[in-house]
Amino acid sequence: MHTRQLGPFTVSAIGLGCMNLSHAYGVPPSPEQGERVLLAALDAGVTMFDTAALYGFGASETLVGRVLKPHRQKYTLASKGGMAGVAGDDGVVRRVIDGRPETVRRNCEDSLRRLQTDVIDLYYLHRWDKKVPIEESVGAMSRLVEEGKVRAIGLSEVSAQTLRRAHAVHPIAAVQTEYSLWTRNPEIAVLAACREIGAAFVAFSPVARGFLCDKLHDVASLADKDIRRGMPRFEPANFAANLKLLPGYRALAQEAGCTPAQLALAWLLHKGEDIIPIPGTTSVEHLREDLAAADVRLDASLMERLEAHINESTVQGNRYNAQSRAEVDTEEF
Asked: Taking the complete model, does pTM exceed 0.85, yes or no?
C-alpha cells in the first residue's frame, strides 16, 4: 500500500470512511458484515480509519472499537465531535451541532469509551458551531491534546479563513471536506490554505456519494431514509441531467484501464501528495476495487479531459440543501 503523510502520522494513501457501516445510506449492513469490511481493510494495508460520534449516533465508533481494538497499534484512528446525537424531551435522538468547550470534551470522552482506546490519533471538529468562536472550540481540543486524550487536531467543512484562525490557536493537522470531480469547492481556497499551514487534506465522498461508481442510475431505488434523497443533485430532474455525464466518464475510465470508481479515486490522488481520499463501502469486493486505485496512473491529458467533463459547471444541483449549506463554512461556487 502506498503511503502519505497525515500530520505526524504516515498512513495508507487511501483510508476507510466508516460512516456508511452504520449511517446515512438507508439500511446499514449487519454488524457482522461491518466487521468483515473493517478486517478486510486492515488486512489489505489500510492504516487510516475515519469515524465520528454522529455516525449511527455512536454505533460506528462502537463497531470500530470492538473490531479493531486488538489491532490498535496497526492503524491511525480518526474521529469527530462537536456534532452528535442528542435526545430531546420527546426521547427522539436528533443531530445537534454544539461546539461549546464542555460539549467538545464530553463528545471526546464518550468517543474514547466507545472506541475502547486511551487516545484518538486525529480528532476533528465535525462542524464549526457558528454560535461559538472557533478559537474556543479549538482551545478545548488543544487541552485534550495536552491531557493525552488526542494526538492531533483536525477540522471538517471549514473555510480557509476559519482554518487560519484555528491554526493560530493550535496546529491543525488535517482538514476534511467533500472533494471529488463533482464537488470542487476545496479548490477555491481551502486546499491552498492547507498547503500554506502544512495540513493534510482528507477527501470524503470521493466517489460522489456513489455517482462516480456508475452503478446508481435510478434515484427511485434509494432507500426511504437514504440521505441522498434530500440532496439537490439527486433530485430527479438534476439527477437525470447528471446521468448524461456518465457515458463520457465511462469512456475515460476505459481509456485509463480502470473502473469508474477507481478513476475518481486516482484523480484525487493525482491532485496532490497531501490529499487522502476516504471512500466508504459496505462490500469487501468494492473495498478491494477502491484500494487498487492507488496503482492507477493518469497522464496530464486525461486529467485535463476529466476535469473539463465533470466540474462545478457541468454538474446540476448543489451538493447540500439550503439548511445543510447554512451549517457548513466552506467556500461555495
From this structure: yes
